[in-house]
Design brief:
42% of the residues lie in helices and 11% in strands. It has one domain. The protein is an alpha+beta fold.
């Protein structure tokens, strides 16, 4: 799957879960950017990723129950 397919799949199953895309590409298609919370180039890690993870974690649903029932890792 490419980034767009993965993001669509996650949004369908877990619509409130923030998605952070890591990519080697310097630009991401607009149709993918509207699906994700943040976009980070792999060359920017970890400087750019570290400040993104905590706010995304705060946005994530607090209950792991729905993820455990679906078979996703808690």
């Amino acid at each position: 799957m490419d980034a767009e397919a993965v993001a669509c799949h996650i949004k369908q199953r877990f619509p409130n879960l923030p998605i952070i895309v890591l990519s080697a590409y310097s630009e991401m298609l607009e149709r993918i950017l509207w699906l994700v919370h943040e976009y980070v180039m792999k060359s920017e890690l970890p400087e750019r990723l570290a400040p993104i993870v905590e706010p995304a974690y705060r946005l994530a649903p607090r209950s792991n129950e729905q993820y455990q029932r679906s078979g996703a890792a808690a």
